[in-house]
């Protein structure tokens, strides 16, 4: 069932979030130190540059990116494999507004958090971590009143929320970011986090999962080769999933600004000022350890099994030409990714490289132990009315009654429904008998 979606252009729909009017110095137009751990200890090249502003294609509002430089960047893209590898930290004198490290004896476990879910970035894995954290502690969740979205494509608004007395601790369902409206219902000390993924991989996953071939009447390769034409022809007024810079769209950038470089630069600064941590999918374990530190949590809180992964048969290898075309088309998401990839590496450096290596090994061991204890294997199941196939975990017979194993493997929708039922217990006007029946 589709949720009741407000018209983003109507008077009762939340307006675009206000950004502070600050003078900003945009990030230099260079590729980041994105490092493949298998290439270490060789220093990465950082002189490869995106084409300057005078290379903007006059037929569209998108930056044109030098093909050779894109090829160099693609070849240095990180692999998601951190087992016993050294993490290289770039030696740059950058500063960041996101400060992570706190000595444990000076902090208390933090309970109030917003996860701004972005599509096909690994955010369902983060959602499961936050669901479990709040579930075992009886915390209160901001949950959608209808379906699984809170307004999208409209901006988040409290009217889209299942009303629960007593306030809220955790928001971890899909909603387009609106800073002021989220602050209306979340405590003042709430931490804000989100996650990014390398844009061509993110878009390939979204294109497949949401059957964009039906929207654009072509394949991923066909779309990449004629992106502007097909976007203009088929995108429609206010999509739930944008075909241009979809992550910036999730993060709240207005559709009319998705192709405007200056607006994108300003919004990246706004995101940096508004969020406490941006995780990077290609460095998920390192990112989670920084999350643990930010929240003053224990390692047990961030152990995970990957959630909502497509069946391997549906994962496409992206041709190099298509990858370059997608980087050009999603130039805003690419710039966002580059900026926060750099930020993550600076945060790792502040945290301590050796300390991070040690904790990643500990986290790997804990995941392996839980996998051995809980999991018998996986099975393929269809979703979205048979339009896609994803993997679900199969628990060992003796693990089905272990709450940790069960919580770590609940499908996101099933877990959401359980949390909704639990929160109905807090609603006034329910008799004791009705509460027992929920």
Quick tags:
438 residues; alpha/beta; five-stranded parallel sheet; globular; disordered N terminus; disordered C terminus
Number of helices: 16
Q: What is the average of the pLDDT values?
A: 79
Helical fraction equals 25-40%
- Biggest β-sheet strands, sense, barrel: 5 strands, parallel
Order of helices and strands: HEHEEHEHHHHHHEHHHHEEHHH
Structural class: alpha/beta
Strand segment count? 7
Question: What would you call the shape?
Answer: globular
Strand percentage: 5-15%
The whole-angstrom Rg is 22 Å
Task: Indicate the low-confidence ranges by residue numbers.
Answer: 1-13, 20-71, 76-97, 430-438
Q: How many angstroms does the end-to-end distance come to?
A: 22 Å
Question: What's the arrangement of secondary structure elements?
Answer:
Elements: H1 67-75, E1 113-116, H2 123-137, E2 141-142, E3 170-171, H3 179-185, E4 191-196, H4 199-209, H5 212-216, H6 220-225, H7 227-234, H8 246-250, H9 261-274, E5 277-280, H10 284-295, H11 320-329, H12 331-351, H13 353-374, E6 375-383, E7 388-395, H14 403-409, H15 412-424, H16 432-437
Helix pairs in contact: 1-11, 2-15, 9-12, 11-12
């Amino acid at each position: 069932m589709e949720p009741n979606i407000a018209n983003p252009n109507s008077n009762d729909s939340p307006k675009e979030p206000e950004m502070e009017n600050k003078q900003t110095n945009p990030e230099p137009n260079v590729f980041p130190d994105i490092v493949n751990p298998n290439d270490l200890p060789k220093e990465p090249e950082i002189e490869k540059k995106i084409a300057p502003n005078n290379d903007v294609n006059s037929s569209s509002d998108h930056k044109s990116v030098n093909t050779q430089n894109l090829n160099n960047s693609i070849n240095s893209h990180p692999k998601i494999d951190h087992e016993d590898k050294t993490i290289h930290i770039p030696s740059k004198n950058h500063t960041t507004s996101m400060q992570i490290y706190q000595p444990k004896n000076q902090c208390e476990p933090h309970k109030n958090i917003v996860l701004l879910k972005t599509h096909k970035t690994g955010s369902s894995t983060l959602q499961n971590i936050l669901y479990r954290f709040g579930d075992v502690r009886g915390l209160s969740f901001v949950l959608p009143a209808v379906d699984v979205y809170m307004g999208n494509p409209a901006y988040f608004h409290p009217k889209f929320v299942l009303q629960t007395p007593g306030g809220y601790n955790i928001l971890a369902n899909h909603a387009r970011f609106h800073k002021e409206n989220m602050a209306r219902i979340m405590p003042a000390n709430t931490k804000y986090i989100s996650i990014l993924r390398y844009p061509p991989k993110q878009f390939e996953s979204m294109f497949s999962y949401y059957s964009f071939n039906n929207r654009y009447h072509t394949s991923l390769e066909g779309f990449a080769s004629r992106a502007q034409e097909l976007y203009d022809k088929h995108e429609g007024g206010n999509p739930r999933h944008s075909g241009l810079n979809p992550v910036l769209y999730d993060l709240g950038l207005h559709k009319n600004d998705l192709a405007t470089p200056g607006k994108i630069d300003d919004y990246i600064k706004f995101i940096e000022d508004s969020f406490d941590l941006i995780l990077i999918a290609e460095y998920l374990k390192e990112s989670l350890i920084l999350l643990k530190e930010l929240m003053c949590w224990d390692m047990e809180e961030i152990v995970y099994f990957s959630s909502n992964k497509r069946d391997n048969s549906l994962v496409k290898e992206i041709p190099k030409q298509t990858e370059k075309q997608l980087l050009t088309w999603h130039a805003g998401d690419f710039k966002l990714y580059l900026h926060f990839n750099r930020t993550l590496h600076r945060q790792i450096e502040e945290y301590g490289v050796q300390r991070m290596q040690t904790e990643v090994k500990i986290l790997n061991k804990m995941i392996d132990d839980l996998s051995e204890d809980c999991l018998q294997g996986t099975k393929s199941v269809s979703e979205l009315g048979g339009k896609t196939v994803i993997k679900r975990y199969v628990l060992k017979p003796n693990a089905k009654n272990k709450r940790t194993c069960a919580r770590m493997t609940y499908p996101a929708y099933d877990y959401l429904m359980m949390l909704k039922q639990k929160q109905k217990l807090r609603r006034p006007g329910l008799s004791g008998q009705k509460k027992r029946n929920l």
